[in-house]
Amino acid sequence: QVQLVESGGGLVQAGGSLRLSCAASGRTFSGHTTGWFRQAPGKERAFVAAISWSGSSTWYADSVKGRFTIARDNAKNMVYLQMNSLKPEDTAVYYCAFAFGATLNRYDYRGWGQGTQVTVSS
User: Fold this and answer.
1) What is the pLDDT of residue 81?
2) How many CB atoms lie under 10 A from the CB of residue 41?
3) 51 near 36, Cβ under 8 Å?
4) How far apart are CA 16 and CA 72, in angstroms?
5) Which residues, including other chains, have CB under 8 Å from residue 94's CB and lie 6 or more apart?
6) Could you tell me if 26 and 35 are in contact, meaning their C-beta atoms sit under 8 angstroms apart?
7) Distance between CA atoms of 98 and 109, rounded to whole angstroms?
8) Most C-beta atoms within 10 A of its C-beta, which of 60, 91, 92, 103?
């Protein structure tokens, strides 16, 4: 069973950058789409970005296009989310998860980790 662990969150000023990491243990991400989601207080968990197993396809929420980049290193069993030009509205707990096939629907994802807190101050 795949276990996912997120890391790399923190406190950053608006305009700053952070890189989140998602590590898989137990089994690999093999063949899976991996996605990042975020949940702000009082809001539902929302899609941020996803990447296919090969890395050839990526998808982004409109709110992060041009600022965030998702990437993966299958040799290391890692998926990353580079976040630039951060805004206070990006403040949330960020989660990674995996899915079978290309999907942006959070209900298709599994293996949720504990999340990592990202706080962007104005």
Assistant:
1) 98
2) 7
3) no
4) 22
5) 6, 9, 20, 36, 37, 38, 48, 81, 115, 116, 117, 118
6) no
7) 5
8) 92
Beta bridge partners of 20: 81
Alpha carbons 79 and 16: distance in angstroms, whole number: 21
Instruction: Look up residue 109 and give its DSSP letter.
Output: -
Both tokens of 113, joined, read: 């980790």
Pair of tokens at residue 53: 């197993």
Tell me how far CA of residue 18 lies from CA of 56, 110, 119, in angstroms. Answer: 23, 24, 10
Question: What is the number of alpha carbons within 13 Å of residue 97 lying toward its C-beta?
Answer: 25
Q: Tell me, what amino acid is at 86? A: L
Could you tell me which of 73, 68, 100 has the C-alpha nearest to residue 87?
A: 68
The predicted-structure confidence for 97-117, as pLDDT tens digits, reads as follows 999 989 999 999 999 989 999
Query: Where residue 60 falls among pLDDT bands split at 50, 70, 90?
Result: very high
CB count within 10 Å of CB 12 equals: 17
Could you tell me if 14 and 120 are in contact, meaning their C-beta atoms sit under 8 angstroms apart?
A: yes
